[in-house]
């Protein structure tokens, strides 16, 4: 179902400054929010990024970003989820944009067997936080292109999932501020409906790729493709049509 949107202007904590973390931070600053950025290499490595983003951004350690932000975007590789600062994230809404990408040196049996979704695994680690799966199925380029004001006829919607209704509403509020409608898919157990290898992952926001791409070529194409607006009704339709298959990004 679609969420009821309430306007709020939180400080966004960001742990991890790869493409997803930086894209979300840039959109948040442009939308008028304060952002606290962090990575595993230390605040001093973010001086250039902070200077580019302007006075609404500052650098910190992951623990400091966790304390300062609510919600907090945990934009680290899924393989590093256990390094997230549990104590500092306790009581916080944690946005999980992580996706499972198994390969020869990394696999998680609980995900491979569909016993858990990746976000349920993160929630188990962050037992005292409220995890919401969001910002995981759209690329940073499209996030920076497709935002629109509330009520715009071509406003794009993004899915979210979470076990805590208040946390889901908080993330929906944030998405609204960032320029997107939100479609509530329910609990983390249902978050697979928008994970890799479902109709909701990436392609709705970019259209069909050229045929014959390798995995690396597909990823590169998605990263550079122009954004395609996707209304909430289409997100609902694609979520309802999803069929659960093997977990993780696979080509």
From TrEMBL:
InterPro entries: NAD(P)-bd_dom_sf, P5C_Rdtase_cat_N, STEAP_metalloreductase. The keyword 4Fe-4S does not apply. Keywords: Oxidoreductase. Gene3D superfamilies: NAD(P)-binding Rossmann-like Domain (3.40.50.720). Residues 12-100 form the Pyrroline-5-carboxylate reductase catalytic N-terminal domain. SUPFAM superfamilies: NAD(P)-binding Rossmann-fold domains. The keyword Metal-binding does not apply. It comes from the Bacteria. This is Oxidoreductase. It comes from Streptomyces ambofaciens.
């Amino acid at each position: 179902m679609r969420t009821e949107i309430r306007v709020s202007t939180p400080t966004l904590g960001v742990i991890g400054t790869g493409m997803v973390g930086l894209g979300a931070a840039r959109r948040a600053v442009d939308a008028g929010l304060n952002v606290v950025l962090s990575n595993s290499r230390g605040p001093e490595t973010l001086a250039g990024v902070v200077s580019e983003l302007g006075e609404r951004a500052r650098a910190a350690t992951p623990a400091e970003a966790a304390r300062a932000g609510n919600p907090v975007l945990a934009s680290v590789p899924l393989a590093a989820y256990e390094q997230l600062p549990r104590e500092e994230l306790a009581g916080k809404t944690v946005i999980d944009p992580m996706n499972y990408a198994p390969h020869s040196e990394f696999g998680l049996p609980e995900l491979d067997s569909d016993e858990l979704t990746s976000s349920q695994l993160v929630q188990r680690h962050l037992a005292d936080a409220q995890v919401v799966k969001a910002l995981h199925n759209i690329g940073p380029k499209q996030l920076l292109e497709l935002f629109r004001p509330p009520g715009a006829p071509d406003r794009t919607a993004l899915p979210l999932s979470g076990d805590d209704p208040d946390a889901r509403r908080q993330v929906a509020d944030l998405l609204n501020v960032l320029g997107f409608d939100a479609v509530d898919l329910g609990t983390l157990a249902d978050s697979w409906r928008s994970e890799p290898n479902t109709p909701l992952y990436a392609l709705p926001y970019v259209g069909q790729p050229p045929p014959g791409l390798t995995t690396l070529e597909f990823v590169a194409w998605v990263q550079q493709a122009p954004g395609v607006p996707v209304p909430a009704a289409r997100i609902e339709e694609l979520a309802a049509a999803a069929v659960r298959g093997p977990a993780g990004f696979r080509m």
